[in-house]
Design goal:
The protein is mainly alpha-helical. The protein has 14 helices and no strands.
């Protein structure tokens, strides 16, 4: 009896679609549902669970999510153990370099978390590690090792401090963005953000991105204002992870070098760090407020009055 009712319902739906009453999306959904129901009466929860597990394995995009998350968590665990070990060694040792070097794993750990999903500020910790308050590389250490003059030792200590702080920070940010790459890939597979590929702006921005993707990624990783759409476009465009990571490393290497040089050369303290970080946060807030206001203005305009390129995306 129920099968007869179902067949009649399917026939009525088919007639309605033929008459143009039901939209095509519903038509496709009905046909898919009909095929599934004809094959089996009850849902296969086992297959659904298997699909969920398969989400973490290598997919059509060639990304092994489970492998990456294991590597990433292991990497954070190693940094934690290393920081704790060096901290304990610093408490027992009188060596100056040991008392300072334990900060590097903590610095790397923090920056390895900072991304869209953990939007913590980064400039302050770069400035702090490069500032004379920490004194990561002491001129006296250079003098004792190389036997150089005091002036030469100060210059070498400053250069080494800038290079170490910038390179370590760039490595941390690269790891954070690689983790974001995999999280976003997971969301794409799960269906949460698949609609971005169907947004009106996607094709136009994709053409712009494909013209010079590496240079564009380097540029947006350098500027202090986050440009998430380009980063997400690179992920949805399946841009190679190696080049994606290299672009972010190079961009942040230059950015962190400038910040570290500012802290080292100007001998800034807590006040200078707070002013620089506060200024960057203010720039970001202005950028966010402008975007929110532009969206609000766009929402107040009737849809039929909007140009195709400015229509709101639902």
């Amino acid at each position: 009896m129920f099968k007869d009712l179902y067949k009649n319902g399917s026939a009525n739906a088919t007639g309605a679609r033929a008459a143009g009453i039901l939209p095509a999306e519903i038509s496709a959904a009905d046909e898919s549902s009909s095929r599934k129901n004809r094959g089996q009466d009850a849902p296969d929860t086992g297959n659904r669970g298997q699909d969920a597990r398969d989400t973490f394995h290598t997919g059509e995009d060639g990304v092994n999510l489970r492998g990456w998350f294991i590597i990433y968590l292991g990497y954070l665990l190693v940094l934690t153990v290393l920081a704790l070990g060096l901290m304990g060694l610093a408490n027992e040792s009188n060596a100056t370099w040991v008392q300072k070097v334990w900060l590097l794993p903590l610095y790397l750990f923090y920056l390895s978390l900072c991304c869209t999903f953990f939007p913590a500020p980064t400039a302050w910790i770069v400035l702090l590690l490069a500032s004379p308050m920490v004194g990561l590389i002491a001129p006296d250490t250079i003098t004792n090792i190389l036997g150089t003059t005091q002036t030469t030792s100060q210059i070498l200590a400053a250069v080494l401090t800038i290079l170490i702080v910038a390179a370590t920070g760039a490595l941390g940010t690269m790891m954070a963005n690689l983790n974001e790459y995999h999280i976003f890939t997971f969301l794409l597979r799960y269906g949460r953000v698949k609609r971005i590929r169907h947004a009106r702006f996607y094709d136009r921005v994709a053409q712009w991105f494909s013209s010079s993707p590496f240079s564009l990624l380097v540029m947006i990783s350098f500027i202090p204002i986050p440009v998430d759409v380009v980063r997400w476009l690179a992920i949805t465009h399946r841009y190679p992870r190696g080049r994606y990571a290299a672009a972010y490393f190079l961009g942040r290497l230059v950015r962190y070098s400038l910040l570290a040089a500012t802290a080292t050369v100007l001998h800034i303290g807590w006040l200078g760090i707070a002013l620089i970080q506060g200024g960057l946060v203010l720039i970001l807030l202005i950028h966010v407020v402008r975007r929110l206001l532009s969206r609000r203005v766009a929402d107040t305009i009737p849809v039929d009055k909007l140009a195709p390129e400015t229509e709101a995306i639902s």
